[in-house]
Amino acid sequence: MLASPAVVVGEPPAGGGSGGGTAPAAAPFPPVSYQGRLVDGGEPAAGSYDLQFRLFDAASAGNALGAMVQQTLTVQAGVFTASLPLDPLAFPGADRWIEVSVRPTPAAGVPPEQAPFTVLERQRVQATPYAFRALKAVSADTVESVPLQSLPPSIVALDQRVALLTSSVALLEGRINALTQTHAQLQASLEVAAAPTRSGWMAASTLPADPGLVTNGFAVVSSVPAPGWMPISAASAPTARSAAASVWTGQEWIIWGGRVAGQAPSATGARLRPDLDAWTEITGLDAPSARSGHTAVWTGTQMIVWGGSGPEGALNTGGRYTAQPQGWTSVSTVGAPSARSGHAAVWTGSRMIVFGGRNSAGLLGDGAAYDPVTDQWSALPATGAPSPRFGATALWTGSGLLVWGGEGETSASSTGALLPFAPDGTPAGSWQPMTTASAPSARRAAATAWDGRRLYFWGGQSSLGAPLSDGAVWDSQSNAWSALGASGAPTARFDAAAVWTGEEFAVFGGSGQTGGQIGPLATGAAWNHATGTWRPLPSQAAASARSAPLSAWTGSLWLVHGGVTSTGAPLADPQRLEVRPPWFLYRRSALPSSTPPLTPP
Prior knowledge:
Layout: E1 2-9, E2 32-40, E3 43-44, E4 47-56, E5 64-75, E6 79-84, E7 96-104, E8 118-119, E9 123-125, E10 142-143, E11 146-147, H1 153-193, E12 202-205, H2 211-214, E13 218-224, E14 230-231, E15 245-248, E16 253-256, E17 269-273, E18 278-281, E19 295-298, E20 303-306, E21 309-310, E22 313-314, E23 318-322, E24 327-330, E25 344-347, E26 352-355, E27 358-359, E28 362-363, E29 367-371, E30 376-379, E31 393-396, E32 400-404, E33 416-420, E34 432-433, E35 447-450, E36 454-458, E37 471-475, E38 480-483, E39 497-500, E40 504-508, E41 511-514, E42 517-520, E43 524-528, E44 533-536, E45 550-553, E46 558-561, E47 575-577, E48 583-588
Antiparallel strand pairs: 1-2, 2-3, 2-6, 4-5, 4-7, 7-8, 7-9, 10-11, 12-48, 13-48, 14-47, 15-16, 16-17, 17-18, 19-20, 20-23, 21-22, 23-24, 25-26, 26-29, 27-28, 29-30, 31-32, 32-33, 33-34, 35-36, 36-37, 37-38, 39-40, 40-43, 41-42, 43-44, 45-46, 46-47
């Protein structure tokens, strides 16, 4: 007798002539379908046959793996199919052989010794049917030296998925290790935070006389001063200038235009990578005409420059700058607002909005929204709009355009309004006035910053031209004003730079009283909204005192460039500051007498 088998992983076929016999025991995984061709006496076998199946680890001799399986099957035209409940643990990846024994099913009552089984040649079980894992792989492109390209597409896809899963597991293990380290660091921090209950421990605070530590027996033993201003590379940096515009892209600080030496408008600029401390010059090919007093916004992919004043006066032109690859494209003038400078501009997420400003005809109280995708302008509604003004504060709240303050027709303004926008980027209704209850006095050129909910003001210039030394906070949720504290606040100033750091409202530079006259300043202070206190910022060198500088917040550094010196000349001198308070280190030498001593950990 001869049998030519084929082994297929999976459920047995629906048909196949399997006959009686002992039912196989329940298997822990789907049975293996064993298909073969049986020849008896030189002819295809037909009828009922008893078959025995046993798994071995060698082509001859070797070890039997698992129990023998015996089945009585119906063979038709020499073809039979058996469903074998093999143990998956017997398939670790090494070669396996199935030994088949066969006899015609004896008639009832025939003794076993009169109907012996014929043992057939062992059949090797190929790797594919039970490839639970690869036994070895020379490289990602070969499995047991078989080219990956020669394998069936399903096997290739499975191999690729396994590689992807292996990479993902490695990545997850790395993250788990990082989280474990972070947990250890946090645990250590918690132990330090619990220091007031232990003698001999040290703690840190940003307060020079922290009441919570002092009352528990701690005393300052040393301090770590706040970082000072540091110079930024001047190589390829923009030349000295004032009235320029800049944007922060999330990776680069882009500066363009402004008044340079001799008060001439410029059409040049550069990009700073703070992490590399390196500048890259901006191409002048197809750039907008030279100007100052313009605005710039960052769309996420482009810087849009618009308006300002050139040699011939106010402009209503602009350009869109792309950094990678470098290039400029023009901004349509069809439907654009009238020419102006000193206006405000914000980016909504889909449109640039401009409002206010002035030109040779006087102050302006209108505005428009520009869609860079369609290169089209649409006018803002006029109902309830703020009165004409220039130098106003404007910001995007996340759902609307807010305009406040600025210089009006006869004096500085103390009013403002909010224009809501629909999700599609179009105005939703008319302007809504901001409350004037407890609002700051009228002013222009105040230092302002937005924390996502609150608008912070400090200083500015009154209608009589005097620098101001007060400030306020407007809460967008309650439409209410509240005053900023005066203790430790910056001195009176206008045209100062300001940023929100995530924890503090920081103010620096500007024009104020210095040497008995109004001039540029090199000082500043930061307001902590949580504690309601001011702290001084490190000063820049006297030579770096500046009014109306450009500034940007990177998320960890405050960048400044340019501005005006005491002689009215433009300045360059780029610098950066890590905005954080000094740290004070406390040690506890003994527990209070009322507290029983504790055993140090």
